[in-house]
Amino acid sequence: MPQMAPISWLSLFIIFTISFILFSILNYYSYLPSSPKSTNLKKIVMNSMNWKW
């Protein structure tokens, strides 16, 4: 059984690296976080803490 030439190993490495990078980019940009609604922001009440020393 003949051994693989180094150029074949290099081409396989490049192909798998490019496919891994593309897979990672597609997974990163496929996630869409839900944006906060304006109604949720109005529910937050800021309680000021006035310390009486």
Overview of the molecule:
The protein is mainly alpha-helical and 53 residues long. It is 58% helix and 0% strand. It has two helices and no strands. The longest helix has 25 residues, at 6-30. The chain is rod-shaped. The mean pLDDT is 78.
Range of helix content: 55-70%
Low-confidence stretches: none
Ends apart, CA distance between termini: 87 Å
Apparent shape: rod-shaped
**How many helix segments?**
2
Total DSSP E strands: 0
Using the CA coordinates, give the radius of gyration. Answer: 27 Å
Largest sheet: none
Which features would summarize this protein structure in a list?
single chain, 53 residues, mainly alpha, 2 helices, rod-shaped
Concise synopsis of the structure shown:
The protein has 53 residues and is an all-alpha fold.
Per-chain topology:
Elements: H1 6-30, H2 38-43
